[in-house]
Design goal:
Blueprint (H helix, E strand, L loop, with lengths): L1 H6 L3 E2 L7 E2 L8 H25 L3 H10 L7 H17 L18 E2 L5 E2 L15 H12 L12
Antiparallel strand pairs: 1-2, 3-4
């Protein structure tokens, strides 16, 4: 397979950007191919959002109607309200910075029980002023694991 690549004459990118392309990437250079893939992905996601907004699921319209009892029930407005929420959730990137020092942590980030993502230096509760109640959680676990057992009292004669 490597010999096949050696025998082929190098071809320029199909977009005429000046770099060499390969048949595996549709005769595009790596950057142009990546841009093409990104563009296709965005267009497919836009089509999917458009299709979802045109054909509302029946449960979404039912859920939205009771929350606004004073306003007239309009299923098309319920769909419009749900579309921005879904877009916001999709846009929210995964947090990859320490909340204390803002250092990039990538895959090595530690998620504390208080909900923060932290670097190796600030992963301990004392280092980032953690507000999570570890003692209270421990007390609850012990109380659940060891229920109070009381014997029945004897009737006195």
């Amino acid at each position: 397979m490597a010999e096949e690549h050696r025998c082929q004459a190098p071809r320029f990118c199909a977009n005429n950007c000046g770099f060499f392309g390969s048949p595996a990437t549709q005769n595009l250079c790596s950057k142009c191919y990546r841009d093409l893939q990104l563009q296709e992905q965005q267009s497919s996601s836009a089509k999917m959002v458009l299709n979802q907004s045109l054909v509302p699921p029946p449960s979404a319209a039912v859920v939205s109607q009771p929350s606004s009892s004073s306003a007239p029930a309009d299923p098309s407005s319920a769909v419009v309200d749900n579309a921005p929420r879904a877009a916001e959730e999709a846009k929210a990137p995964q947090q990859n910075r320490c909340t204390t020092c803002r250092r990039r942590v990538g895959l090595t980030g530690f998620k504390c029980r208080c909900g923060m993502v932290l670097c190796g230096t600030h992963r301990y509760p004392e280092q980032h002023a953690c507000e999570f109640d570890f003692k209270g959680m421990g007390r609850e676990q012990i109380a659940k694991a060891n229920p109070v057992v009381k014997g029945e009292k004897l009737e006195k004669i």
